[in-house]
Amino acid sequence: MKIRDSMRWGESELIKKGIENARFDADLLLAEVLKKRRDRLYLEWDRNLSEQEEASYRKVIFRRAANEPLQYILKRQEFMGLEFYVDERVLIPRADSEILIEKWLEIVKSENEQGQGRLIKVADLCTGSGALAISIAHYCPSAEVVGTDLSSGALEVARQNAERLGVPVQWREGDFADPIKGEYWDYIITNPPYVSAEDYGQCAPEIFHEPSIAFLGGPDGLDFYRRLAEEARPLLTPQGKLLMEIGWDQAEAVCTMFRMKGFETQVFPDLAGRDRVILAR
To answer: Domain Release factor glutamine methyltransferase N-terminal: where (predicted)?
Structure first.
């Protein structure tokens, strides 16, 4: 097939399987197979694919048609302007989570302007691919960052990302906050599993290719917030703060948990106007 015929075939196969953005995905996958930028496909519209290229393209199209996430096939995802390696061991970073980093950077900038500039200790719980921890270390060199995860496989991916992006992050394996106990932290950030068992069963089919441990937060999705509300106070410096990503309908419940433990809370929306991040101090 020529490039133009391959693009049309790939789009058609994905449409038949109900894949959204079928043309975009088909184009990206062909560009990946041919090791070209997407725009070059249109400039070389009439070039014939080799048998090997055609076989490789069919393989990745069938993977996408089976609802495997595009990011896992391409082995990459952009987050905060940085490119992260991702595979089936880690949750795919979402743009919604960038709100957490943006708010953290705003807070740190404000404190520096008030004359509080200093080395700060930051712990990222449930780090996964390391997207949050690495973004903080990249954009704030004065931060001493630790990322924790229960999954050794996830930490392997996080280490790989940190090395490739050239940022210093310390990685610790263990259950939630256990690896950072016995120390005092200026900030604890986390995008914990917060999907309820009922909601998980109704997720888009691509979700089931990602590690379920990164989604499931107990029967109501709030188990990890309960644990953090109980465990956080001895881990924070007197001015320490927590920044947590939440599900769109969880703000009231999570804020109540932390207020009952003596924290002040503030909620920030994502770009769609839905509650997305809670600051607790």
So the answer is: 7-74
CB 164 within 8 A of CB 186: no
* pLDDT of res. 116: 52
What's the CA gap between 27 and 29, in Å, rounded?
A: 5
List the CATH code of the domain at 3-66: 1.10.8
How far apart, in whole angstroms, are the C-alpha atoms of residue 84 and residue 99? 17
Those residues whose C-beta lies under 8 Å from the C-beta of residue 38, and which sit 6 or more positions away, are 27, 28, 31
Residue 48 marked in a binding site:
no
| 80-280: CATH number | 3.40.50.150
**Averaged pLDDT for residues 76-89:** 98
Q: Is 149 annotated as a binding residue?
A: yes
User: At which residue do the structure tokens 């496989």 appear?
Assistant: 153
Average pLDDT score over residue span 214-222: 96
CB 75: neighbour CB atoms within 10 A? 11
Q: How confident is the model over 157-212, as pLDDT tens digits? A: 999 999 999 999 999 999 999 999 999 999 999 999 999 999 999 999 999 999 99
CA–CA distance, 30 with 23 (Å, rounded to integer): 11
pLDDT digits (tens, 9 = 90+) for 221-278: 999 999 999 999 999 999 999 999 999 999 999 999 999 999 999 999 998 999 999 9
What are the sequence ranges of the domains in the chain? 3-66, 80-280
